[in-house]
From TrEMBL:
Keywords: Oxidoreductase. PROSITE patterns: ADH_IRON_1 (PS00913). Residues 193-394 form the Fe-containing alcohol dehydrogenase-like C-terminal domain. Residues 8-182 form the Alcohol dehydrogenase iron-type/glycerol dehydrogenase GldA domain. InterPro entries: ADH_Fe/GldA, ADH_Fe_C, ADH_Fe_CS, BDH-like. This is Iron-containing alcohol dehydrogenase. The keyword Oxidoreductase applies.
Amino acid sequence: MKFEFYNPTRLIFGAGSLEQLGKVVSQYGKKALLVIGGGSVKKSGAFDRAVSSLKTAGVSVVEFSGVEPNPRLSTVVRAAELAKKEACDVVIGMGGGSVMDASKVIAASVLYEGDPKDMLVRAGKVPKLPERALPIITVPTLAATGSEMNCGAVITIDDEKEKLKTFIKTEVLYPKVAVVDPELTITVPKAHTAYGACDIITHVTEGYFNGIDGTPIQDRFAEGVILTVLEWGPKAVSNGSDIEARAQVQWASIVALNGWVQAGVNAPYPVHMIEHTLSALYDIPHGAGLAVVNPAWMRFAAKFRPERFAQFAQRIFGLTALGKDDLGLAMEGIGRFEEFLRSIGCPTRLSELGIGDVTEEMLSYWADKTLEVLCDEEGRLPGRPPLSREDIAE
Ligand code: NZQ
Ligand code: ZN
């Protein structure tokens, strides 16, 4: 194992921490672009509280609303133009992963010379990463992506014939501060709470199953995240106002993708890459797409590495080998995982996402779109095992 770990984001966590937003932001700028989504934060009152905290601290506010789920590059560009015109000196992303991701790329686009599309990853091209960004402050309102404390962003390119969902990951996108107030998540509907739980688990299963061998501490971290979500996720789904459950799930979402669990594991994210194609083409919620793709991918990958999936079955679901070989145990564990997803209200079949009548052509096309974002020298999607076009379709 060999790695370097760096995460400079200050994390302010706990119920009521929104009150500190103004004081926090005033350390970085005087005029904030406050980026929000389709209006949930206005309905909940969080937006007004944020604005009042900012004004009290002497920070003036320029609002940019309307970031859509699976955020589009064209939206990012419009927001960056507004930030330039208004001479904003700090960007606040208040919302789910879509809003936070958009905010990061807005903050970089304001200072970027060239087309922001060139920042994004595409197979066969070296991205021209931004070297600067306005200071970014994140205020998550949904527990899922962990975007509040990482330097990644997922953006859909929408100026081409068919949309392409890709990503950027670079140090200047680390938020300066994440103000994480679990009270802001109590209005998240049951379905999105469940999709968030699936997203959190999938962030750590990617490393668990696709990472290098010999990472016992990272395995235990990942298992800790999964077991925490299995325990507290259903409580947050069944009673959205359970602030303790909301807080535990939100902390899990941060831990799952702030780099700590991933350190040294060196894993690609094949399940995410396949899902991103679905959410780009069909505009489905990311976590719901993962609930379909992840168990299906697991059943495929377990055949190549049954002992690893058997470990998952044993340590997460307490299953024992009793008369079963590793693959049998692995499949039982995957079945239990899928049952869990269903029990909290996640779809596990494409038809439940409204994607019916799937043909061979569609599957091949989705595979091609996925490989258009990322592939190795042999044209395969990185992972364990690396996936050819036919593998992805299967
Ligand atoms: O737009 P508004 O009105 O705010 O409504 C949103 C949206 O409709 C709603 N919502 C958010 N907070 C709420 C709320 N509704 C009521 N009360 C609240 N407190 O939830 C809906 C979904 O929001 P979205 O931001 O799209 O969800 P999520 O947080 O799951 O983010 C998904 C996006 O993040 C990307 C995904 O690909 C997708 O584009 N990801 C980003 C990652 C990262 N930066 O590290 C990693 C992830 O793997 C993921 O790929
Ligand atoms: Zn995810």
